[in-house]
Amino acid sequence: SQRYPGLFEGKNDYANIVAGTGKSIGRAAIIDLSGVDDRVKLLVGHNIFNGLLKQFKGKDKTGKPPVLIVPHAKIFVGAEKASVISAESIIVISELGKIGVGYALEEENALDIAKEVANSTEAKITIIKENDISVQLKGRQSYRVFVRPTLSRAS
Questions:
Q1: What are the angstrom distances between the C-alpha of 53 and each of 59, 80, 139, 145?
Q2: Which residue range forms the structural domain that includes residue 141?
Q3: Which of 8, 22, 54, 93 has the smallest CB count inside 10 Å?
Q4: Does a structural domain hold residue 5?
Q5: CATH code at 64?
Q6: Residue 57's closest CA among 24, 14, 19?
Q7: 66-75, 96-105, 127-136, 145-154 — which is least confidently predicted?
């Protein structure tokens, strides 16, 4: 009878998801949502955003704050606000930023991101061409940088 059987069975351990390594380099927790439809992505994203908000709201700010990287962000915080869940995700992402949780939103067109979220961002990075990048920091003059090739062959 469920549309997505097995999707929401049990709790997510957010403390473990964002736990650091104790070293100077962070640890990545990757949640692969490829192969599922946008509705599932939205539900899972909303669940994660809310879980992180509960995990960090009201806690002291010692240690390294987590950074949430959201590819194809318009699914979660799109300008169209296609559903109640996406509208709530916009509020939650903005709240995460206010309590020190960093976020990077990726989208091909900045206009596809809700204004509430776009206006609260500290920086906007745009790829002009290949390794030519535009960086706009809030309250500062924008500038261009050239990105050098990576030194490693890691993928």
A1: 10, 23, 27, 34
A2: 123-155
A3: 22
A4: no
A5: 3.40.50.300
A6: 14
A7: 145-154
pTM of the model: 0.75
DSSP 66: P
One domain, residues 79 and 25? yes
51-87 burial: b if 16+ Cβ within 10 Å, else e: bbbebbeeeeeeeeebebebebbbbbbbbeeeeeebe
- Pair 100, 150 in one domain: no
pLDDT 10s digits, 40-95: 888 888 988 998 898 888 877 666 778 888 998 999 888 887 688 888 999 999 89
Supply the pLDDT for residue 149. Answer: 79
**Residue 9 forms part of a structural domain:** no
Q: Examine the domain organization and report whether 128 and 85 are in the same domain.
A: no
Q: If phi over 0 gives left and psi between -120 and 50 gives alpha, with beta otherwise, what is residue 33?
A: alpha
